[in-house]
Specification:
- The complex is a heterodimer of chains A (114) and B (112).
- With 114 residues, chain A is mostly beta strands.
- Chain A has strands spanning 4-7, 10-13, 19-25, 32-38, 44-51, 57-58, 67-73, 76-81, 90-99, 102-105, 109-113.
- Chain A has no helices and 11 strands.
- In chain A, the strands form 2 sheets. In chain A, strands 2, 4, 5, 6, 9, 10 and 11 form a 7-stranded mixed sheet that branches.
- Chain B is mainly β and 112 residues long.
- Chain B has no helices and 11 strands.
- In chain B, strands 2, 4, 5, 9, 10 and 11 form a 6-stranded mixed sheet that branches.
- In chain B, β4 (30-38) and β5 (45-51) form a beta hairpin.
- In chain B, 36% of the residues are buried.
- Classes of the chains: A mainly beta (114), B mainly beta (112).
- At the A-B interface, β4, β5, β9 and β10 of A face β4, β5 and β10 of B.
């Protein structure tokens, strides 16, 4: 079946630094990637949608300059949290869409900013 | 504005019995619905889905029912097993954007 590899699975960084999270579709081409974040005991909140080769579309309230998304190829999308602060600590999950109704999720990245 | 709602934060069921998880939505543009199982610090695992043109879809122990007029769907698990204990999320897709909107999740505990 379709597999999405997300790395790193967890990361601790200092305030003010940037962190990059990678999401790769291993055996299919993902025309669209979605990025979510989840706070403890809460729902998955969609942050942005990225299509290969074009700029990401951000959901209302999500700072595009803080959460940089790159989708340079059909198998790779990255999310960079710039100038991270403790309130950015969360669980980030990517989802790759290979078919109209086929969504495959990565295993998530636990980000802790200290 | 919560477009997908799971009003029961938790559910406890005895092993072997039926688990029924409910989900309501408000957006009539949703055309596809999915259920996911999730453990802490892991990505969601797809369980079952249903198109808005159907009212039932079954896969093994899992059955999803869709009532479009009520904007309500439910996931039935029978028989429930202790390994089913997890957080269950329903998600809805709006056809024009392809985005998945998630409910708040329901924590299912199946007791041996």
């Amino acid at each position: 079946g379709a597999v999405v590899s997300q790395h790193p699975s967890w990361v601790i960084c200092k305030s003010g630094t940037s962190v990059k999270i990678e999401c790769r579709s291993l055996d299919f081409q993902a025309t669209t990637m979605f990025w979510y974040r989840q706070f403890p005991k809460q729902s998955l909140m969609l942050m942005a949608t990225s299509n290969e080769g074009s700029k990401a579309t951000y959901e209302q309230g999500v700072e595009k300059d803080k959460f940089l998304i790159n989708h340079a190829s059909l198998t790779l999308s990255t999310l960079t949290v710039t100038s991270a602060h403790p309130e950015d600590s969360s669980f980030y999950i990517c989802s790759a869409r290979g078919t109209p109704d086929g969504y495959t999720f990565g295993s998530g990245t636990r980000l802790t900013v200290v | 504005d919560q477009q997908v709602k799971q009003n029961s934060p938790s559910l406890s069921v005895q092993e072997g019995r039926i688990s029924i998880l409910n989900c309501d939505y408000t957006n009539s543009m949703f055309d596809y619905f999915l259920w996911y199982k999730k453990y802490p610090a892991e990505g969601p695992t797809f369980l079952i889905s249903i198109s808005s043109i159907k009212d039932k879809n079954e896969d093994g122990r899992f059955t999803v029912f869709l009532n479009k007029s009520a904007k309500h769907l439910s996931l039935h698990i029978v028989p429930s097993q202790p390994g089913d204990s997890a957080v269950y999320f329903c998600a809805a897709k709006a056809g024009n954007t392809g985005k998945l909107i998630f409910g708040q999740g329901t924590t299912l505990q199946v007791k041996p």
